[in-house]
Amino acid sequence: MRARSLGGARALGRLLPGSGLAAVVALAATFVAQLHGGPQMLYALFFGVAFNYLSHEARTQPGIEFCARQVLRLGVGLLGARITAMQIAGLGWFTALTVVAAVITTLACGLLLARRLGLTRAQGMLSGGAVAICGASAALAIAAVLPRDKHHDRFTLMVVITVTVLSTVAMVAYPLIARLLDFSPQMAGLFIGGTIHDVAQVVGAGYTLGSEAGDTATIVKLFRVAMLAAVVLVASIAFKSAREQAAAANGLPGAARQALVPWFLWLFAAMVALNSSGALAPSVQQGLGWVSRACLVVAIAALGMKTSFMQLTRAGWQPIALIVIETAWMAALVLALIVWRH
After folding, report:
1. Nearest alpha-carbon partner for 301 in 11, 12, 18, 17
2. Mean pLDDT of 115-135
3. Is residue 12 in a domain?
4. How does pLDDT run across 176-209, given as a tens digit for each residue?
5. How distant is the alpha carbon of residue 283 from its chain centre?
6. Is residue 33 situated within a structural domain?
7. Is 331 exposed, middle or buried (0-12, 13-18, 19+ CB in 10 A)?
8. Mean pLDDT, residues 88-114
9. What mean pLDDT comes out for the span 95-101?
10. pLDDT of residue 201
11. What angle in degrees, to the nearest 10, is found between the helix axes of 152-180 and 282-305?
12. What percent of the chain has pLDDT over 90?
């Protein structure tokens, strides 16, 4: 018993330096975002890249790896605390079908275009899922169940950077489009919530058009977030053999036997069920949402530490082109369906 306790203490001690560093970088990014505005995750990523040299240090590497994988998964699982079945049921059939069609076709667009641009199916799935669901959070969740090769982390960070920048641009541009086309608050909320990548940007853009549009945009966005579990499960099944081969090639037999349904998806589903049943008090729900966001910011800081600016420049123009096209497709489809409906 004592030996086990000592072993646990040693393991914790190995994780502390790197985990503490990732947490400090995340705090710095949060402070800058609150002081000057701007996307918190993008700051965390760039600040993390500046400390890339520490990801190779024996003292900090274990903690950085832990944050980039396990803390990331915890953050994704706790996202479910923001969603209830009642919110989704209240959307109406047209809104629900529009969002489902946009998500599915954007994923298909990513898979088809990836081949044309010389990228892999896994990269198409990752970029399409990030655009279709919830930006950086979806990119991190989907990346967790895809095969890991030498380009995996670099491509993931390129996706995070691109979707975050495009989401910020959309936060400014899409409300102007909604006003120009004279959308009703409900349709404006559907357009904003059904197309912008990040939850924070959806809220920011939606409420510039009024409280009704902001409420609708937020609920529509949460419906997209709820689809994350299904998309990650599909990715896990579709890439199971490729993931096992990559794990075996890297000498990771334990990873090759990874569960088909990752534990963080079970946590996500449990959080949705608890929140839908009313078991989570508003204060608990808010606290879990805060913990989820904090975990994701720490994870993105750790991922940034694992990549250098030089590596990012080697990713080429293809990932950016792919995500821009996917973003344009999703916006055009939702706009077309709204105009057709009215």
Report:
1. 18
2. 91
3. no
4. 999 999 999 999 999 999 999 887 788 778 888 8
5. 24
6. no
7. buried
8. 91
9. 93
10. 81
11. 130
12. 26
pLDDT of residue 208: 82
Note the pLDDT of residue 102.
95
Distance between CA atoms of residues 101 and 79, nearest Å:
23
Domain that holds residue 272: 75-304+311-341
Instruction: Write the secondary structure of the chain as one string of H (helix), E (strand) and C (coil).
Output: CHHHHHHHHHHHHHHHHHHHHHHHHHHHHHHHHHHHCCCHHHHHHHHHHHCHHHHHCCCCHHHHHHHHHHHHHHHHHHHHHHCCHHHHHCCCHHHHHHHHHHHHHHHHHHHHHHHHCCCCHHHHHHHHHHHHCCCHHHHHHHHCCCCCCCCHHHHHHHHHHHHHHHHHHHHHHHHHHHHHCCCCHHHHHHHHHCCCCCHHHHHHHHHHHCHHHHHHHHHHHHHHHHCHHHHHHHHHHHCHHHHHHHHHHCCCHHHHCCCCCCHHHHHHHHHHHHHHCCCCCHHHHHHHHHHHHHHHHHHHHHHHHCCCHHHHHCCCCHHHHHHHHHHHHHHHHHHHHHHHHC
156 occurs within a structural domain: yes
Instruction: Burial-class residue 182 by CB neighbours within 10 Å (0-12, 13-18, 19+).
Output: exposed
CA-based Rg of the chain, rounded to a whole angstrom? 20
Predicted structure pTM score:
0.76
Q: In this predicted structure, what is the pLDDT of residue 255?
A: 45
How many domains is the chain partitioned into structurally?
Answer: 1
The chain-wide mean pLDDT, for the chain, equals 84
101: which 2 tokens? 């069609």
The Cα 146–Cα 106 span in angstroms is: 18
pLDDT band for position 254 (cuts 50, 70, 90): very low
Give me the pLDDT at residue 108, please: 95
Long-range contacts formed by 202-206: CB under 8 A, 24+ apart: 202/171, 204/171, 205/170, 205/171, 205/172, 205/174, 205/175
- In-domain check, residue 257: yes
Are 91 and 224 spatial neighbours (Cβ–Cβ below 8 Å)? Answer: no
